[in-house]
Structures are given as structure tokens and as C-alpha cells.
User: Which sequence fits this backbone?
């Protein structure tokens, strides 16, 4: 199955195309600087602000790795949470924040890589002024993400050492 | 530890910087359209042509996921091989080929995603005229990559249905 790649269409249409295109390989055609579609806005309460998710790979019984493209609008972020199998973040655009419990907040930009160990509480999101795009690679072998409390404004605004 | 991100330097220097920067987070500063550095040329005989690897995440005892940025020059490709834990390919630039044993070759472009099951022989590489860049996410829990025979010119040049 083939799709041509030179569409001139909007993100909502791309999301619909991607969702209807569960073929081999999975196509995410783009004519923008972005690599993957923005996907759908996340509506659960584990996030604050506008956050979009394009699921790229779902885990299955043969490979427990989950991959998603996550786009945070300025000021948007996750709640504190941890992954029993650990998580890798690949920053692909914008300016983001990442913080592990008990450690200072760090700034993430395109090309930065985070390897968060299993069971370590952390949060991530966009900076206050600039959005942030990341590829999240989650090892689900020990169970799903465990969600914790919201990130306070004091935590979100904490200085970067 | 912080590094400023607006370098005006070459890829070899970036590779050296990245290698000397095993800090938290791992920084891959870029002032190009590429997301991650090209890395070092692979010199083992599991590849044909010029292929470059920037290791982004190494597997460890807590998380067996390996992530690498792989750049194939035109015509370059892997040998046939398989991964006992499976592999995910995220195409980020250029034009590439991917083929699983017994299936037709497919073309990969920016935004395409491949999920290759465990133990399925396959090869990937660049098209003859255009290079190809991919992020490879490999599940190493069942052991390392198993390398097989070279891709013949007939296989490499096989038509895309």
C-alpha cells in the first residue's frame, strides 16, 4: 500500500489520514518541518494545558516498546508520574522542561536525549513562552505509567541551575 | 551541567562533543535541519556503503531499549539481519528502503514508521539516489542483532509494488 507524500493539508487532516492508515508501513506524510503529525489533543487530566499526542507504535505481546510524538503548547506539562519500565525522551523541536524528583529542572531543546530510569517520578512539558515537541519511547514491560500529583507553579517556575 | 546550543560547527566536532558529553541530559546541539548528529562511520562489514551511527541511548540492566540515529548515504544498506527483541524504525529524512524476508521492498520517507517483529529477517538502507536518516529503536531483551547474508543487487534493485 502506497501513499504519495506531497500533500498540502492541515494537521487535523493529517491526523485523520494517519488514523485511517494502519497499514504497512505506517505512513505519516508531512510537508512541514515537523517529522510526525501533531495528533489529537489529550483530554485526560494527567496533563495541564494543551498537549497533543500522535501514537506512533503501540506495544504488543512481542515488543513492549511504545512510541508517541507529543506536542506541548507553551506552559503545558504533564503531572508528576513514573514508568515502571523506564522512558526515553528525544527532543525534536521547541524548548521544553524536564525534572526528576529531587533534582533541578533542566531545559530540553532539539537533539537532547533523556533516559529516565524505571520508577523515578518526573514531569516534562513546554517552556512558558515556547512550545515543545518530543518523541517518547516508553518501556511498558513492567506495567503502565503511574500518575501522581500536579506540578505546582513553584515547581514549574523553578530556576535552572 | 549546561551547554549552549548555538554552535556553528561541523559534524565531526559535534560527534566529539556528544561523545564527551555523557551528562544529564545528553546534549546533541544542532544548528542544522537535522535533529541528531551524524555520528561516526560504521566500519564493520554488516553494512555496505557509507553508513553513520550516532548512539543516542545504550541499553542497561534497567531498560533494554537501544536508540541510535543512523544515516545511510545513497546506495548504502545493511546486510540481512534480525533482532530477537524486535525493532522500530522512525524515518526522519531522505528516501530509504525497507524489506522483510518474503515481502516486497517498501520506500520510506520522513514520518514513516516501521515495526519489525522479533526474529524476522529484514534489511534497510538508502535509495540509490538519495540518502536516508532513521532513528532505530531496538529491543535488546532477547539478545543482540543476528547478522545474515548480504543484500544482493537484485534484491536491492527489486521493484516497489
Assistant:
Amino acid at each position: 500500500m502506497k501513499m504519495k507524500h506531497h500533500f498540502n493539508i492541515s494537521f487535523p487532516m493529517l491526523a485523520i489520514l494517519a488514523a485511517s492508515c494502519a497499514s504497512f508501513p505506517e505512513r505519516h506524510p508531512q510537508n512541514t518541518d515537523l517529522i510526525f503529525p501533531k495528533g489529537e489533543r489529550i483530554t485526560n487530566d494527567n496533563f495541564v494545558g494543551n498537549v497533543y499526542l500522535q501514537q506512533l507504535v503501540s506495544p504488543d505481546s512481542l515488543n513492549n516498546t511504545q512510541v508517541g510524538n507529543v506536542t506541548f503548547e507553551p506552559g503545558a506539562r504533564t503531572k508528576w508520574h513514573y514508568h515502571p519500565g523506564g522512558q526515553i525522551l528525544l527532543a525534536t523541536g521547541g524548548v521544553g522542561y524536564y525534572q526528576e524528583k529531587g533534582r533541578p529542572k533542566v531545559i530540553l531543546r532539539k537533539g537532547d536525549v533523556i533516559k529516565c530510569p524505571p520508577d523515578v517520578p518526573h514531569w516534562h512539558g513546554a517552556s512558558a513562552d515556547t512550545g515543545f515537541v518530543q518523541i517518547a519511547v516508553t518501556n511498558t514491560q513492567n506495567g503502565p505509567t503511574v500518575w501522581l500529583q500536579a506540578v505546582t507553579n513553584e515547581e514549574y517556575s523553578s530556576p535552572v541551575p
